[in-house]
Write a structure and sequence with these properties.
Blueprint: H1 11-24, H2 37-48, E1 63-65, E2 72-83, E3 89-99, E4 104-106, H3 108-119, E5 122-123, H4 125-140, E6 144-153, H5 154-157, E7 168-175, H6 176-179, H7 181-192
Parallel strand pairs: 2-5
Antiparallel strand pairs: 1-4, 2-3, 3-6, 6-7
Helix pairs in contact: 1-2
The structure holds guanosine-5'-triphosphate (GTP) and zinc ion.
The site of guanosine-5'-triphosphate has 10 residues, from helix 4 and helix 5.
Catalytic activity: GTP + H2O = 7,8-dihydroneopterin 3'-triphosphate + formate + H(+)
EC number: 3.5.4.16
GO molecular function, one term: zinc ion binding
């Protein structure tokens, strides 16, 4: 359940705007099926953009101390986002790996929560990838981070160039996972394993 007030979304303004778009495309905004559409779309935007006022770094304040300075990988984290150029969805999976330092590990679910927060904004896939990696580097101070995101962009499938099935992969490495090729390939091997 989302608290619409907490992130200051102006539902009335979205509602008006959606009514205007429907009018502009030649729809009869008074017809039965469309009567509540502007209101519904406003609620939907509040939900899909709920991450705008959240800071993914907050999640990484939950830490535990465990003597593990080896790889941690959470893979196949599903996400849905909205492309900032066309405001249509792009969606796929994120894979997040890090190597803790000084025994500082975060809760596994926090990695998935960070993906949610960052995805629920008008976005670029590249920015989702780097924001997650940089938030982890800043808060957990790990030896290294590797984030890979794979997604299908509706703006490339249902419109424009129309290439359904095409996938975009973005990857960001930081720290030792940027400098140590062997460790980074190990992570990529685990990501590619079923
Ligand atoms: N780098 C990047 N580009 C994206 C992303 N999502 C959508 N795009 C691209 O943003 C670009 C916008 O290009 P424009 O030429 O300004 O817009 P357009 O005329 O609608 O472009 P077409 O999609 O080619 O029809 C397109 O090439 C999209 O494929 C993303 O996450 N990252
Ligand atoms: Zn787009």
């Amino acid at each position: 359940m989302i608290d619409m007030k907490s992130h200051n979304v102006d539902l009335d303004k979205i509602e008006q705007a959606v009514g205007m778009i429907l009018e502009a495309v030649g729809e009869d905004v008074g017809r039965e099926g469309l009567q509540d559409t502007p209101k519904r779309v406003a609620k939907m935007y509040a939900e899909v953009f709920a991450g705008l006022k959240e800071d993914p770094k907050e999640y990484f304040r939950t830490v535990f101390h465990e003597n593990h300075e080896e790889l941690v990988l959470v893979k196949d984290i599903p996400f849905y986002s909205m492309c900032e150029h066309h405001l249509v969805p792009f969606f796929g999976k994120a894979h997040i790996a890090y190597i803790p330092r000084d025994g500082v590990v975060t809760g596994l679910s926090k990695l998935a929560r960070a993906v949610e927060t960052v995805a629920k904004r008008p976005q670029l896939q590249e920015r989702i990838t780097s924001t997650i990696a940089d938030s982890m580097m800043e808060t957990l101070n790990p030896h290294g981070v590797y984030v890979m995101v794979e997604a299908e962009h509706m703006c490339m499938t249902m419109r424009g160039i129309k290439k359904p099935g095409s996938k975009t992969v973005t990857a960001v490495s930081r720290g030792i996972l940027e400098t140590d090729d062997i460790k980074r390939s190990e992570v990529i091997t685990y990501i590619n394993m079923d």
